[in-house]
Amino acid sequence: MLIKSIKSRRVREIPIVRIRPCRTRSRTNYNNEGMKELAMSIRMNGVIQPITVRRVSSAEYELIAGERRLRACVMCGHKKIPCIVISCSDAQAELFSLEENLQRDDLNIFETAQGITSLMNSRRLTKNEVAHQLCKQPSSIENKIDILQLDDSERQLILKSHLTERHATALLKITDKQERRMILSEIIEYNLNVTQSEGYIKSCLEKTAYEKRQDARRKGVIKDIRLFENTIKKALTALISSGIDAEKDTYYNDDYIEYVIRVPKDKKTVIDESSAA
């Protein structure tokens, strides 16, 4: 990414109170133990890697990258922090912040996805344009954004269990939320890697598809039986309408349904038939 002023990129000690947070920061989760360890390291060795800021007024700077280091310095009680000051536009600052975090692997998979989405929305960029800016494949950007379809509880489980982006992407193939939560719990319980998880999800989808086909077949049979029953009812109604006192009984057994229709014989017809014989 092009930065307007290279000359200004020297390390300066800047008072922490003069540094404001990044307007579009992607990070939302901070590991308490990790922050304590970083603060202890800074207390013993100082800030080895300066943070990156840009000047926004004569007395104020905006953080571009290095929020964990800044927070750790505050925890240590430091009044100043070493900074690299760059000159860039709002759009460049947003992109540079996201890009540096991605390169340093500072963000979890959902923070990365949210950062990319925010960048797209604020700068009205397409997925292809963002992919070009970040030097990534469009399919990779799409996969990262898609995992935001998972709800907060699913995200927390994935992060807590140290599952990967590929785990999250594979889970999206399960559209039923209750089933997806159950499968996620099983992946975590049995510590399945990506390949095992993808295979397990595939088998679950195949089982669901089979059950749906069987269910559709059963519904088809039931529909056929109902059509047959309606035909019998119509015939019975026609007989009764014509003055014949017909009756129907239905018996349900384990293996079949039995229909019994009783039509009384006309006595005169019976006598005539006997005489003819």
Please sum up the structure shown.
By secondary structure, the protein is an alpha/beta fold.
Radius of gyration: 36 Å
Helix-strand category: alpha/beta
Largest sheet: 5 strands, mixed
Average pLDDT for all residues: 82
Shape: elongated
Low-pLDDT sequence parts: 1-8
Tally of extended strands? Answer: 7
- Ends: how far apart? 110 Å
Order of helices and strands: EEHEEHEHHHHHHHHEEH
Tally of helical segments: 11
Helix percent reads 55-70%
Strand content: 5-15%
Strand order of the largest sheet: 1-5-3-4-2
Description:
This protein has 277 residues and is of the alpha/beta class. Helix content is 57%, strand content 13%. The chain contains eleven helices and seven strands. The protein has helices at residues 32-45, 67-76, 90-104, 109-123, 127-134, 138-146, 152-160, 165-171, 177-189, 194-241, 267-276; strands at residues 11-15, 19-20, 51-55, 61-65, 80-86, 247-252, 257-262. The strands form two sheets. A five-stranded mixed beta sheet has the order 1-5-3-4-2. A hairpin with a 4-residue loop joins strand 6 and strand 7 (257-262). Helix 3 (90-104) runs antiparallel to helix 4 (109-123). The longest helix is centred in the C-terminal third of the chain and has 48 residues, at 194-241. The chain is elongated. The model is unreliable at 1-8 (pLDDT under 50).
